[in-house]
Amino acid sequence: MSLTEFSIMLIPALVALGGGVLAMFWHPSHQTRSLIQHFAAGVVLAALAVELLPEIGREHAYGPVLIGAFALGSLFMYGMKLWTMHLEESQPVSVGGLDWGLLIATFIDIAVDGFIIGAGFAAGGETGMILALGLSVELLFLGLALTSESTKGWRIVAISGALGVTVLVCAVLGNLLLSGASNTVIAGALAFSAAALLYLVTEELLIEAHEVEEKPVATLVLFGGFLVFWSIQLLGS
Predict the structure, then answer these.
(1) Which of 10, 35, 143, 183 has the fewest CB atoms inside 10 Å of its own CB, making it the most exposed?
(2) Which helix (H) or strand (E) holds 25?
(3) Rg (CA), the chain
(4) pTM over 0.85
(5) Residue 62: what are its φ and ψ, rounded to 5°?
(6) Per the structure, how many domains does the chain have?
(7) Residue 125 phi/psi, 5° resolution?
């Protein structure tokens, strides 16, 4: 792993911390947080459709391997959902004022984001850089999306800092583990990760966003998030 690659991997970590600092001074309303979650969902969907899935195709791996990897990722996230539901039932949200289900799911997603960035660099080309820059947009708004009446101030900065460390460590780990790996292994790892990102959008971000009365403009914000990532990909190419 070169110093340049590490420097690019560091960008999402610093952006995540910056998002926490921003959330420390700006306390968005429920409606605003819903819009932020729509935007983040659009970014993740674009990462899947614009960069991740095409990269999996470019690896020319066997179809059954990709199907199996995605199915395994789906089962893994299903198991995580059952676990977080059990955690919320046995340890209510009011304990410490934290939504443990959403928080755990977010850390899992960030770990997957980091692993995907590392896998992108292992795959070669511009994939790692584009994923790092695009997913940084998601990380910037995660601190604001996680902000609540009881989770703000130093707490949200600490959480955002921990998210930044998580994405950096997992990016480095993913790059080290997959450097020199076969195309099939890299494609399988990316297919597994795609399932996790799809779970984040459908089962976490959008569900949380729809807990308040949705404004029509939320649809535009969702597409705006998609467009931002796609623009980064197009300009980066």
Answers:
(1) 183
(2) helix 3-25
(3) 17
(4) no
(5) -65, 135
(6) 1
(7) 70, -150
Across 25-46, average pLDDT: 82
**What are the Cα distances from residue 93, in Å, to 51, 72, 101, 158, 188?**
35, 29, 8, 19, 35
Tokens for 51? 């960069």
Question: How many C-beta atoms lie closer than 10 Å to residue 86's C-beta?
Answer: 11
- Please check whether residue 160 is in contact with residue 16, taking contact to mean a CB–CB distance below 8 angstroms: yes
Q: What is d(CA 178, CA 34) in angstroms, rounded to the nearest whole number?
A: 36
Among 12, 14, 54, which Cα is nearest to 191's?
Answer: 54
CA distance between the termini of the chain: 22
| Contact status, residue 38 vs residue 209, Cβ threshold 8 Å | yes
pLDDT tens for 43-68 read: 888 888 888 888 888 877 888 999 99
Question: What domain range is 204 assigned to?
Answer: 3-236
Residue in the structure block whose two tokens are 């480095």: 172
